[in-house]
Amino acid sequence: METVSEIRGLIILICFSLIMHRTGTSAVNYLTLGFTELPLNSSNLHNHKPYNLPINARYCFKHGVHKFWLYSTDKPLSLNSTTRPRSEIRIRGYDYSHGVWQFEGYGFVPYGTSGVCIMQVFGAHPKRATTLMLRMIDGWLAYYGGPFLVPNMWERWFRLNVIHDVEASIVKVYVDGVQVFQAPGHGGSFHYFKFGLYAQPNASYYMESRWKGIRVLKKDYY
After folding, report:
1. Radius of gyration over alpha carbons of the chain, in Å?
2. pLDDT at 144
3. At a CB cut-off of 8 Å and minimum separation 6, what does 29 contact?
4. Residue 29's pLDDT band (boundaries 50, 70, 90)?
5. Which of 181, 105, 90, 101 minimizes the C-alpha distance to 140?
6. Cα 215 to Cα 56, 190, 195, distances in angstroms
7. How far apart are CA 148 and CA 141, in angstroms?
8. Who wins on pLDDT, 2 or 83?
9. C-alpha pair distances (Å), 31 with each of 120, 131, 135, 162, 218
10. Residues of the chain by 3-state class (helix, strand, coil), percent to 5
11. 43 SS3 class
12. What residues contact residue 62 under an 8 Å CB cut-off, 6+ apart?
């Protein structure tokens, strides 16, 4: 008998198929209408990696693609840190405390990478560190450790849009133009976006993700 998660995943895949059939693409990018894209360059992209390794031991940028890789046995961010290993980029220069902000990027996660956060909205009230974590778990895109949002995410490029409305305390998640989740905000005095790899419980031994077309946008107000 099919589980509720399997049925929900099937419905999402049908929605994707209908959009592709009607548009000839993964989706019309209507999500950025009314937003202004902010300039990004290397100074805005700050690498977080195991403290004992150089950046190029866990990250490279070639042909417009950011490639991150990580092992579950890697060291944390700093010598005395109790956090799990990571290889990720923290977007600097666009920390925010109000307004409506959007992250857009095209991601790819190879088969087998699991138990890892691939994108997050950092910042929340003091009892937690993040407003949003999107994890890859056994081929599913998940909100933290669940609910599970989209199946069959391994071995394909997908477009991820995350829109955070601070005043409304809402975060919306879109995959290939389809809204797959709406999460509550979690307070906090400031926020910023991160993408790449951050190991979580039950992480696979080897983890990898690739990203391209990264954009940060801010809602226009008239």
Report:
1. 17
2. 97
3. 159, 177
4. confident
5. 181
6. 23, 19, 11
7. 6
8. 83
9. 19, 20, 22, 10, 12
10. 15, 45, 40
11. helix
12. none
Q: CA-CA distances (angstroms) from residue 213 to 35, 88, 153, 202, 216? A: 16, 16, 18, 29, 10
Q: DSSP label at 77?
A: S
Name the pTM for this structure: 0.87
Q: Percent of the chain having pLDDT more than 70? A: 87
Alpha helices in the chain (DSSP H): 4-23
The phi and psi torsions of 56 (rounded to 5 degrees) equal -70, 0
H runs (alpha helix) in 4-86: 4-23
| pLDDT at residue 66 tops 80 | yes
- Joined tokens for residue 222: 């008239």
pLDDT at 24 over 50: no
Does position 146 have pLDDT exceeding 90, yes or no?
yes
Whether residue 50 is predicted with pLDDT greater than 50 in this model: the reply is yes
Say if CB 115 and CB 200 are below 8 A apart: yes
Q: In whole angstroms, what is the distance from residue 11 CA to residue 154 CA? A: 18
What's the maximum distance between 2 C-alpha atoms anywhere in the chain? Answer: 53
